[in-house]
Amino acid sequence: LLLALSLLLIAVVWCAAISDRRTVAGCQVADGVTTYVALKKGAVELNGVFAGLSGSQILAIKLALAWIVYKVLPEKPTDGDRFLMGIASGVGCIPALNNVNVIRGMP
Question: pTM of the entire structure?
């Protein structure tokens, strides 16, 4: 029971953290920076949306997107906004984590 309650508390804190406009924007920045580094080290962009662009171009797009997200998303989101912001955080942070793994595996 204690473990279940601890996991529930962690989940609630995690959801609150990823449902913030700063986190959504930060995840886009993290994705852009890690993509830039991976491409500089010789990786190949597999995302069809960005394939063919340079690391600098992708980073510029991600930084612009982060700025827009930060300015457009509400500072005090509703429950529905929090759900969408959580998804948006995942869309940026999961690829960033993957990029880190790619970079770590490179010579």
Answer: 0.81
